[in-house]
Amino acid sequence: MVDPKAKCFVVDTNVFVAAVKPFSRPTTARLPDTFRLLMKLILDDTISLIGNSKLATEYRCLGQEFHSETASMVIDQLLEKTTLIEISREGIGVCATYFPDQRQIADIFHAATAFQSRSIVITNDNDFDQLKKSGLIEIWSISDAIRKLLKETRH
Length: 155
Hints:
There is one protein chain. Strands 3-2-1-4-5 form a 5-stranded parallel beta sheet, with helices on both faces. It has one domain: Rossmann fold (3-Layer(aba) Sandwich). The N and C termini lie far apart (34 Å). Helix 7 links the parallel strand 4 and strand 5. By secondary structure, it is α/β, with parallel strands linked by helices. It is built from 8 helices and 5 strands, in the order βααβααβααβαβα.
């Protein structure tokens, strides 16, 4: 169950890719901010993660594609924390109008998930631009999320 006092987020798969991809290179010098963001989202008890079955499937597929122990561990933790909800036809219908290509069903589902749960979407996917401009749901870029959620941990 989602804590009503928690800040709720739908974390798009591009956040996971940006966070974990540097670990596929052997010379990562420092912990990337996107990885720190993802860890904050997973470990902070004042944050709730909301998703849908399509998003969970996307995460699992990405975990397999990376062939990485780090990726697998992060996916497991991300999925463990994420509350999966059923998306209503109404939510899908409302959000679909903001996506120019109706074949972007995953994006439409993620938007509908956020719409129904009053969550903030974190994504760098430009396909959400029209929806962001509408103000129907709040959408943060990865940079916005880093700035807003990690600012208290920076010195």
